Amino acid sequence: MREIDYSNYYWKDEKIKLRSIQEGDWEGYYTNRFDTPARRLLQCAVELPPTIAEAKNFAETYAEFSSNRLMFTIEDLHGENVGGVNLNSIDEKNGTFSIGVQVDKDHRGKGYGTRAITILLKYAFFERRLNKFNECALEGNEGSIAMLKKVGCVQEGIRRKVIYTNGRYYDLILFGLTKDEFMEKN
């Protein structure tokens, strides 16, 4: 295959690019499932042990945008897979959506998640005509809370003691960002 020129590629910025999930991405999904503290923050639960079959099914299900949940692989500009991001909970009638992101353990703290969310916000607001990004973070998930604030989200409320994990109930912190708020910041 010819080398791809990414200079005019919509799905990139100065440090990352997004691409479709490929069936070969199952291995990264599988190994990330062994990071219980990170998965607990993401899924608000302890998951059952991962299986290779489940990981392969995940990659196959979301390859080539064959689902209503638009799943992307995040790569650095050298082509290394550093995580995943997805546009989900799309409500065309009301113009709302959510975004999920997971950055691999070795790549956290480098801004990749913030960059990936920013690319998807631009797409949702300026290409899909959506108007409101809604998201929540589990109490104690300081990385996600900081990232949501960094992209311009406003804390809109707290759903008190609604998630049970690790032997106690946790709050969900609710965040939101409108297209107008995003445009003011960017």
UniProtKB/TrEMBL annotation:
Top-level taxonomic group: Bacteria
GO MF, one annotated term: acyltransferase activity, transferring groups other than amino-acyl groups
Record PROSITE patterns: GNAT
Pfam families: Acetyltransf_3
Domain N-acetyltransferase, residue spans: 16-176
Protein's name according to its UniProt entry: Acetyltransferase
